[in-house]
Amino acid sequence: MTAGVSVNTANAMLNSFGDVYVQMHVGDPGSDGTSNIATFSDRAAVDLEDAVAGVRSLAAPVEWGSSDVWVGSPQTVTHASAWSAPTGGSFLFSAALASHIDFVEGLRPRLQALSVAIPSVATD
């Protein structure tokens, strides 16, 4: 599609996020990222690759600390939200997970993949 945001603009927008922290959700996080927060609600810092062709993805899997384990009743995590700070901060984006993750007490959360894209990038 030749109509849309230029690739350079899309990449610049995605690369402007700065530090990013991910939070787990048991349903759609909603337009402000605060709905359906999972029991294990601590945010983990993520390392994102530089955007390419309007898409920015994890540089490596996200693993919560060794002392951070799921507590409480089992839950199925379906979404993740991204934030500018470990607490508070600005909501950046959310994504549905490619596959749902069943968490039970004592399990340490790990996120294998996550990406965000500018959906309307002008290409030839």
Write the SSE topology.
Layout: H1 7-15, E1 20-25, E2 44-46, E3 55-57, E4 62-63, E5 75-83, E6 91-103, E7 110-111, E8 115-117
Name some characteristics of this structure.
124 residues; mainly beta; four-stranded antiparallel sheet; two-stranded antiparallel sheet; 8 strands
SS-based structural class? mainly beta
Q: How many helical stretches?
A: 1
Proportion in helices: under 10%
Q: Work out the number of β strands.
A: 8
- Oligomeric state: single chain
Order of strands in the sheet with the most strands? 2-1-5-6
| General shape | elongated
Please mark out the parts with pLDDT under 50 across 5 or more consecutive residues, or reply none: none
On the 0-100 scale, what is the average pLDDT? 87
Structure description:
The protein has 124 residues and is mainly beta. The protein has one domain (7-113). Helix content is 7%, strand content 33%. The chain has one helix spanning 7-15, and strands at residues 20-25, 44-46, 55-57, 62-63, 75-83, 91-103, 110-111, 115-117. A four-stranded antiparallel β-sheet has the order 2-1-5-6, with no helix packed on it. The termini are close together.
Quick summary:
It is built from one helix and eight strands; from the N terminus they run αββββββββ.
